[in-house]
Amino acid sequence: MHLRRWPIRYAATGWLYLVAAMLHGQSVAPSPAGSTDIAAEHEFQAAMAAEDKGDLDQAASLLLDLHRKHPGNFAVDESLGLIYVAGEKFAEALPLLQAAAQEQPASDIAHANLGAAYFNLHRNSEALAEFEGAAKINPENTATQQALGQLWMEAHQPDRAAQAFSHALALSPGTVDLQLSLAQALSDANQTGKAAEILASIKDADQSATAQSLLGDIAEKSGAYRDAAQHYIRASQLDPSESNIWALGLEFLRHWTFDAAVPEFEAAVVKFPFSTRMKLGLGAAYFGNGSYGKALPVFAELLESYPDNSLYAEMLGQSCTAVMQETQQRCALLLHYADAHPNDAKAATYAAATLISGVETPEQTQRARKLLEHAIAIDPKLGEARYQLGLLKQNESDWTGSISDLEAAVALKPTYAKAHYRLALAYWRSGRKQDGEAEIELEKKYAKQDAEDLDQQMRQITRFLVDVHSPK
Questions:
Q1: Same domain, 12 and 130
Q2: Number of folded domains that form the chain
Q3: Which of 90, 246, 394, 403 could form a disulfide with 120 if both were Cys (CB 3.0 to 4.6 A apart)?
Q4: Nearest to 448 by CA among 420, 423, 424
Q5: What are phi and psi of 231, to 5 degrees?
Q6: 20-39 per-position pLDDT tens digit
Q7: pLDDT digits (tens, 9 = 90+) for 250-262
Q8: What does the pLDDT read at residue 179?
Q9: Are residues 127 and 179 in the same domain?
């Protein structure tokens, strides 16, 4: 029996290798008369020879002809199926490999090859069942155990994956890929101590980017944040890949070391100009570092590229309102977003805010008013919309008219310092001096709240980055 390895791409965790038997030396099935079909045997061997020479088209043609003449022949079905696999024609390979597994149900290789085809067709539950079957037939096949472990990882069951990887490692001691896979599974299963022991047993682990990245994950989970950063730095030095540099930048963001995150992401967006998460990381680093003017064009570019993304619209809106100057041209994207997403009350509010903070015209004022009234109709509890409407009225010198909106804003958010200040102005202008003085005291009391609000927004961004954009 001639053995081959077929590489099959496995998402996010590397390469999955399966032993694939090309069945050299086996014969085709006997003819109905009971005598061996010599011509068919020669044709089968010719197909194997063509495959050996790399002429897969010729091999497939010969085997397809044999398949028509001799249906139900394991050697023909398995070989033709595997040639289709080699050509990444998984849909064509599947029925042949299914037939082969039925023709020789005791063949672990047949079940493993069928499982590989299922996997490549994204039918993971069926792939897992076939590999489990292959492992029961022959538990001593390292490649099957490794594939089984990776499929359990895909199924988000790292405990079971660790068992399979451990079994594979026992069969092939010292195999670095298996050690790394086992460490990853143990780490994902929150068995960080065992994972660290496995990594410590790897020779030259300090020269392995994968090992260093895993050690960073383990240190992060253990609360050793400085150690985590050092491991991520080392991983990015050994392998300055997008994923490793992202992990380092994300570590800085996770612990609010924005001054360190900024240069990492600035360099990263130059090196990986098509990486969306690097751009988002840069915007978050600028925002967290208080550089709202720099964050603004980053979020604007993201919203231009993804005009239906509500997070990018919100972050652009927050950046635009945080920049205390004339509305920047790129903030006009918020108006387009708000028009395209009329049910997004926050976006309507931010869009109105850009109009209010800019050079006002009667048309802009009217548009801002409509946006804010629409936002309030959608979400009556949106304090920012109430505040912006009160601000708009004050810009029109309607001080008395602004009171009800600003009172609603502080009722919805009692710590809203800016709203208390504007309400104080409205009270003073309306002759309510004592009420105005009380509002000023509240503004002083909650003066630090604006910074805390930005901190809360930064926490939301960081959680989004960690939960959504981290490699799985």
A1: yes
A2: 3
A3: 90
A4: 420
A5: -65, -40
A6: 333 344 444 433 333 347 88
A7: 999 888 888 899 9
A8: 96
A9: no
